[in-house]
Amino acid sequence: MKTYTVAILGATGAVGTRLIEQLEQSTIPVGAIKLLTSARSAGKTLPFKGKPL
After folding, report:
1. Nearest 5°: phi and psi at 40?
2. Kind of pairing, strands 47-48 and 30-36?
3. Alpha-carbon distance 28 to 15, whole Å?
């Protein structure tokens, strides 16, 4: 099955976190996810399907 690499710009913001939640609930086959944030969010982890990113 084909999987997708997904990048979310502004992942720690309100819209970014909502996109992550929606991806977790969707049936889209995500092979890899790239979370892009500003320098202010350096070192912050976000959960995706039970794993910290």
Report:
1. -65, -25
2. unpaired
3. 18
The amino acid occupying position 18 is: R
Confidence of residue 48 (pLDDT cuts 50, 70, 90): confident
Q: pLDDT at residue 43 above 90? A: no
Residue 14 Ramachandran class (φ > 0 left, ψ -120 to 50 alpha, else beta) = alpha
- Say what the pTM is: 0.81
What whole-number distance in Å separates Cα of residue 12 and Cα of residue 40?
A: 10
| 37 φ, ψ (degrees, to nearest 5) | -140, 175
Give the pLDDT band of residue 42 (cuts 50, 70, 90): confident
Number of H helices, E strands in the chain: 1, 4
